[in-house]
Amino acid sequence: MSQGSLMKKVIVISGVTSGVGEELSRTFIDLDWLVVGLARNKEKLKKLTHEFGKNFTAIETDITDENSVAASFKFINNQFKKITLLVNNAAVFKMEKFSQCSFNDINSMIDTNLKGAMYCTLEAVQIMKASSHSARIINVASVAAIHGIKGQAIYCASKFGLNGFAEALNQELIQEGISITTLYPGGINTPL
Fold first, then answer.
1. Which of 93, 143, 152, 170, by CA, is between 20 and 30 Å from 100?
2. Is residue 109 within 8 Å of residue 154, measured between CB atoms?
3. Looking at the predicted structure, is the pLDDT value of residue 5 above 70?
């Protein structure tokens, strides 16, 4: 890595292959940040790498798998030595009456929307603490983290959990120069 690259800010974004994650990547590349994109879709990651160029690093990551997350953040630490900003953006969604849902629906949404964000945060915090830079974690929650929505019981549970996690963790990390912001968007026209 060049000396110039060491001076750049580093953002890690989960769920970069579509929607909000892809647009955030584009925005931060335009701001001359180094963008590290995490996603499962290898083909879409290759396409974005070609489109975004040298300031974009794609890492195939399944955020529901702690080993995949740990390996990805080990690579990030070795490559960049810091994380300025983590955006926990990846999410899955299903609109369905709870009684019509399956165990798989519960696991999918909780594992991605809540546990995946927690896994990424746990690894990122270690890197953030080791660097002497201030850092921030942004969680893309939802209005579903604030009030229940009919047909979205599991999704709401995952986002309420993310909100509680962030509120508690912010109290632990703020004294160490790491702050947490949670966003509560309404509906956004994305593939989700």
1. 143
2. yes
3. no
How far is residue 83's CA from residue 76's CA, in Å, rounded to a whole number?
8
Reported pTM: 0.92
- Give the amino acid at 158: S
Burial (CB count <10 Å: 0-12, 13-18, 19+), residue 113: buried
pLDDT for position 185: 79
DSSP characters for 79-145? HHS--SEEEE---------GGG--HHHHHHHIIIIIIIHHHHHHHHHHHHHHSSS-EEEEEE--GGG
Helix or strand or coil: residue 40?
coil
* Token duo for residue 39: 């996603």
Structure token digits, residue 65: 């798998």
